[in-house]
């Protein structure tokens, strides 16, 4: 693992869901392709090193690597992960990021957990020295965008489809962790999950907001084998999950090897209307309050695994997020890392990747010409200024908890 190092981290965005185009055809959205990473990956890794970042959320495209059951193309993975090793950059391996290979179909496929676990085990065997993994990125968002909102992949819009996707993705996540541990017993797993909160806009919306504030935990509840309350248990059973499927999570969790990654953006808090509609509320509680809610529920080490905001507010937002992280650590929450996501500007996230417009979103530490942005310099300075101090505080926290 990372030992006692506090993990200042970035990531190279590697989303690859399928979307439907206006003419009815479908297309794979590949952020690594849109940001020219496949051609410039060596340069991108050098930027990580230049910034003083020692840990990188990184993964090769699952859909290009897992070609069929038991069949893989490791060419790009071999090149990239071997180079990261040469540079002494520790990957947090991102195995599945919002999409699956065409031959698997989508997250409604009940065979996905076994197929993905096979891939995870094969990856771990290929790179046995790697110990940090995010098997499936943002399970809650993946299931919501694919099967509740109808935006990606299966593009379905129902509670039944959402629960089907959710149970398959969570099972794939747990089975992948088990498969990796069979190869690398020292592995640790950093869930990168969207931390959400729903605010009732008036008293009539309180029952719906209460339901949504329970629903937001479901991906982690299943992954960690956390006991559900009656309303969520009944919701899952009434939408296709069997008692046996639910009990499987209780019997198979590997929570002891997990670090809870909380992603927080200005869009993660929502206003709830009496008719059930929601809208973005902007930052009301913030990362400190919401992460405390997640920590009190699961009592696991925490990592801030994603944040950004569009220019020109990036530097202010970075410092605000860091202040939240530092306060959590000071107050005794075992928070072990902080991430600005991502290294480069992104493309088409202004439409949540639903449209293929080629719009550059100015969110990165570097632009797509690989020139450092003000937030990149601010993050670089933050690492230099805080690295030694945060390490001293980490040791103090360990002793305090003992």
Automatic annotation (TrEMBL):
PANTHER family in the record: ALPHA-L-IDURONIDASE, BETA-XYLOSIDASE-LIKE PROTEIN-RELATED
Species annotation: Sediminibacterium roseum
Protein name: Family 1 glycosylhydrolase
Taxonomic placement: Bacteria, Pseudomonadati, Bacteroidota, Chitinophagia, Chitinophagales
SUPFAM superfamilies per the UniProt record, alphabetical: (Trans)glycosidases (SSF51445)
Domain of life: Bacteria
